[in-house]
Design brief:
The complex is a heterodimer of chains A (87) and B (188).
Chain A: H1 9-19, H2 26-38, H3 40-64, H4 72-86
Chain B: H1 13-29, H2 32-48, H3 59-80, H4 121-132, H5 136-147, H6 152-159, H7 163-186
Helix pairs in contact in B: 1-2, 1-3, 2-3, 4-7, 5-7
The chains are: A mainly alpha (87), B mainly alpha (188).
Chain lengths: 87, 188
């Protein structure tokens, strides 16, 4: 029964990454915490991962408001291309 | 010449939809030239199949559905570029150490891990260059999930991948990114 709770570091960090988005299941979180008992490396990874998540979040907030638009030249060029096709 | 056939107002396409579609594409592929090409291809495809437009949806929805198709095609293309895209893994992938940390890739302690550095412009440009260094498909999925904050389900649908597939990609992107930030920011 306990064997099914044992996971590798690769799997543990996968769960940890998933958990950064709040999408890990309860069973996955349990497996992760059991893994921490014997693995300090993954524990460190998790702590650093939270720092990274904050950085990504800050970056996301400043990127999301950005609206990308085509320049007028691009639009004119695009129109010409389309007209060629229509003709 | 049937009167009931829905006519598309193709002359107005660029004025009405080009910006919306370009923005739609650029947040997904993160490359302005590529996004322009995708938008242009979409308009071409739209013109060619204009007679199939049945007016069941709006013009814009119809055009976006073509654009989505183009983005999936693009994702498939970068996904099938094997070898060149493969990352240096952080874990042993076979043998008795399978799934364990590869020794020289083990997370190191970070020196300048101060809270206030999070708003730093320099940090952000370092982060951007680390994301750009990821294999294209990892970068694309990572950006959609983390920077654009799309729902998992939406990304899976748009790129035609499974959720577990997505999490493996996110995991690989994040471990790779962590290493890049460790080498170039925290411990540089």
């Amino acid at each position: 029964m306990f064997k099914s709770l044992k996971i590798t570091c690769d799997q543990a960090t996968t769960i940890c990454d998933k958990n950064q988005y709040g999408e890990a299941t309860l069973l996955e979180k349990l497996k992760l915490n059991i893994h921490f008992i014997r693995c300090k490396i993954c524990f460190k990874y998790t702590k650093q991962n939270m720092t990274l998540t904050k950085i990504y979040k800050g970056h996301a907030n400043s990127c999301k408001d950005l609206k990308h638009c085509l320049s007028d030249e691009d639009k004119v060029a695009l129109k010409q291309e389309l007209d060629k096709i229509k003709a | 010449m049937a009167q009931e056939q829905v006519v598309l107002n193709t002359d107005k396409w660029i004025d009405n939809y080009a910006d919306y579609m370009y923005n739609y594409a650029v947040v997904r592929v993160n490359n302005s030239d590529l996004a322009k090409d995708l938008v242009q291809d979409t308009f071409f495809a739209g013109l060619k199949s204009a007679k199939n437009f049945q007016g069941k949806s709006t013009e814009r929805t119809w055009l976006v559905s073509i654009l989505k198709r183009k983005i999936i095609d693009y994702y498939r293309k970068i996904n099938s570029k094997k070898g060149q895209a493969e990352v240096r893994m952080n874990f042993y992938d076979d043998g008795e150490n399978e799934g364990n940390w590869i020794e020289e890739r083990v997370p190191q302690s970070w020196d300048n891990q101060s809270e206030k550095s999070i708003e730093n412009q320099e940090l952000r440009s370092q982060l951007e260059s680390c994301i750009d260094a990821l294999p294209e498909k990892y970068g694309m999925v990572f950006r959609m999930k983390t920077i654009q904050e799309f729902e998992t389900e939406e990304i899976c649908k748009e790129l035609d991948i499974t959720a577990s597939n997505l999490w493996v990609i996110i995991h690989r992107a994040r471990t790779q990114l962590r290493k890049c930030m460790e080498d170039n920011w925290f411990n540089s």
